[in-house]
Amino acid sequence: MDTVHVLKIIDILYNDCISAGGDGDALWYLRDYTIDEILPLVEEYNSKLEYPFEIEITDGDIHWGQNQEWIIITPNRKTYNTAPTWMQFVLKT
Fold first, then answer.
1. pLDDT string in tens for the chain (93-residue length)
2. How far apart are alpha carbons 43 and 87 in whole angstroms?
3. Total count of domains within the chain
């Protein structure tokens, strides 16, 4: 796994989410990585934020956010296929 690449993706997801001004939502559909590989990198990134987001694991997905701004990181095809159309950023890798 290219850690630098993954941290850049995490940074893009985070910055896109917060740039929405309170209604940011993003989804990252993992095909090349597992939750176990990604979670430590999300935790590392989050720990360096001035105002860290909450991190929850729900049904095998990472839910990372606060209030109305959330990022879902999932290996679940159904979660990806049924993502709400109002999500502003959806990434499939």
1. 899 999 999 999 999 999 877 677 999 999 999 999 999 999 999 999 999 999 999 999 999 999 989 999 999 999 999 998 889 999 998
2. 23
3. 1
Task: Give residue 14's domain range.
Answer: 3-92
CB-based burial, 32-59: b 16+ in 10 Å, e otherwise: ebebeebeebbeebbeeeeeebebeeee
Measured in whole angstroms, how far is the alpha carbon of residue 84 from the centre of its chain? 15
How many angstroms separate the CA atoms of 5 and 68, rounded?
27
DSSP 24: -
| Angle, in degrees to the nearest 10, between helices 3-19 and 35-47 | 60
CA 58 vs. chain centroid, Å, equals 13
Collapsing DSSP states into helix, strand and coil, what is residue 55?
Answer: strand
